[in-house]
Amino acid sequence: MAESVALAPGIKGIVDDWSSDQRAFKNVPWGKAMMWIFLLSDTFIFSCFLVSYMTVRMSTTTPWPNPSEVFGLEFLGTPVPLLLIAIMTFVLITSSGTMAMAVKFGYERRKVPTFWLLLTTAVLGATFVGMQAFEWTKLIVDEGVRPWSNPMGAPQFGAAFFMITGFHGTHVSFGVLFLFITAFKVRRGDLDKETPGFMTGRKNRYEIVETMGLYWHFVDLVWVFIFAFFYLW
């Protein structure tokens, strides 16, 4: 980090320090700074969704469906509670590990392992989205759940489920798309040559990989809260 500019004493120095971002954003790329701001705004949105869900869940007078039964699957003829959700969570947490390794190799400017780890992360994310599509299909077709009705109990269940998981699934889908784009650019050498184009960045800097890592870890963290509040409660 570069040396900070000398500041005036007293209140003026504090104002100058905060207004010039001497600590938080000194030499931070714009893409990374903007990603942090985007994630902060997204945190508020997901927080509002989860708080609204808890409010509806605690205030409804109609029995709420048991998530262990609703999201259970049969394995070798035996019902297993939350089997699909457990697999989805494992897949997404694993993708967070591969993403962290991709960022590490990106820092070291090792193109080949960075590419394969980004590709693996994207495939794991796509697998998660595919399992979520299966979950939605099962609830809509087999169970008859709709955003406005629910034959298993409280009608708010469908609205809360499709809103929260759909919004998160949209984030994962866009993340998968941009991971494939980033992996392709790494494989082609765009980050080494500073080839003009979308999501390229500065020459010999793999900042876009770290920026994608911030987004992906955020998506994984949000899923942990959804898993705890929606599926385990």
Overall geometry: flat
Spans where pLDDT lies below 50 across 5 or more residues? none
Indicate the CATH class: Mainly Alpha
Could you tell me the strand content as a percent range?
Answer: under 5%
How is the biggest beta sheet arranged?
2 strands, antiparallel
Distinct helical segment count:
8
End-to-end separation: 45 Å
Alpha-beta classification: mainly alpha
Keywords:
two-stranded antiparallel sheet; mainly alpha; 3% strand; Four Helix Bundle (Hemerythrin (Met), subunit A); 233 residues
Q: In a few lines, what is going on in this structure?
A:
This protein has helices at 10-20, 30-59, 67-70, 83-107, 111-142, 156-188, 190-193, 207-231, and strands spanning 73-75, 78-80. It has 233 residues and is mostly helical.
What's the helix and strand layout?
Blueprint: H1 10-20, H2 30-59, H3 67-70, E1 73-75, E2 78-80, H4 83-107, H5 111-142, H6 156-188, H7 190-193, H8 207-231
Helix pairs in contact: 2-6, 2-8, 4-5, 4-8, 5-6, 6-8
Account of the 3D structure:
With 233 residues, this protein is an all-alpha fold. It has a single domain, classed as Four Helix Bundle (Hemerythrin (Met), subunit A) (Up-down Bundle). 70% of the residues lie in helices and 3% in strands. Strands 1-2 form a two-stranded antiparallel ribbon. A hairpin with a 2-residue loop joins strand 1 (73-75) and strand 2 (78-80). The protein starts with 9 loop residues before the first helix and ends with a helix.
